[in-house]
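Hey, I was hoping to borrow your eyes for a little while. No rush at all, and the record is pasted right below:
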Amino acid sequence: MTDRQCLRFFVSGQVQGVWFRASTREQARRHGITGHARNLPDGRVEVLACGDPEALGRLETWLWQGPDAARVTDVAREAAPVTPPGDFSTG
């Protein structure tokens, strides 16, 4: 992939305990994105996503919706200068 980049998203709202991380992993893998999704102590979910800009845009759009039980109120985004991981994990 050319122009591969990494972004970090912080997803707020009712996003823990609603299959958000597993659903994010499914979406990421569908779009060829690597990284991780993990719960934060403050109730948000952090998503590190590495891929081409178009795929990252599709994932960001999905993050605003999430799985059916989620109620997303905000998605903050920042550049993440990291080495892209080889897969997408939760934990």
About this structure: The chain has a mean pLDDT of 94. The radius of gyration is 12 Å. The beta strands are 5-14, 34-39, 45-51, 71-79, 88-90.
